[in-house]
Amino acid sequence: MFNSKALLASTLAALASFAAATPIGPSTDIPVTVTVCSGGVGVGCAAVPTVSDTCVNLTGGLSFLNKEISTVTVPGGFVCTFFQDFGCTASGVVNAGTNSQVFLTAGTWHMNNVPGLSGRTNFNDLTSSFTCSPI
Ligand SMILES: *[C@@H]1O[C@H](CO)[C@@H](O)[C@H](O)[C@H]1NC(C)=O
Questions:
Q1: Sign (positive/negative) of CA torsion 122, 91, 119, 72?
Q2: Which of 57, 73, 99, 130 allows an S-S link to 82, with CB 3.0 to 4.6 Å?
Q3: Is the shortest distance between the CB of 51 and ligand 1 below 6 Å?
Q4: Which stretches of 1-135 are assigned E, i.e. beta strand?
């Protein structure tokens, strides 16, 4: 005799083990979209797909944003570092030394008051590159 309850139980068990094998947390392969704007929120923006731990230079099609970024929206679960130089390297020589990079977690930020290595700093119109990673 066919036992539908036993079939249901084994199906649920198979689903549960499949779910347990699925990795938890944000993928590092799927791009996250960071919105960067040359003006206020929603003004002169580009939605930039950003692969984790990959540097985005504001060159080519994004060159209109070089040294122009004023507002940024970072999606949940990520932290993005914005650099004054190309290549996502911190020069440490301009804009009060250590603040040639700033660190933005989830949310919408006005670049004139953002966290740098030595506290809050004005990073308006300074970004040339950025990179993001899952927290
Ligand atoms: C970004 O620019 C720097 C400096 O010009 C270069 O070394 C680096 O390869 C560039 N990175 C990408 C991802 O284009």
A1: positive
A2: 130
A3: no
A4: 32-37, 45-50, 56-57, 71-74, 78-83, 101-104, 107-110, 114-116, 119-121, 129-134
87 CA from centroid of ligand 1 (Å): 4
Ligand 1 pocket, 86 CB below 6 A? yes
Separation of 16 CA from ligand 1 center, angstroms?
A: 44
Shortest CA distance to 83 belongs to which of 105, 63, 64, 98? 98
In 3D space, the residue among 131, 134, 110 whose CA is nearest the CA of residue 48 turns out to be 131
Q: How far apart are CA 45 and CA 42, in angstroms?
A: 6
| pLDDT tens digits, one per residue of 107-119 | 999 999 999 888 8
Q: Kindly indicate the confidence band of residue 13, based on its pLDDT and cuts at 50, 70 and 90.
A: very low
The model's pLDDT over 20-59, given as tens digits with 9 standing for 90+, comes to 444 455 555 678 899 999 998 899 999 999 999 999 999 9
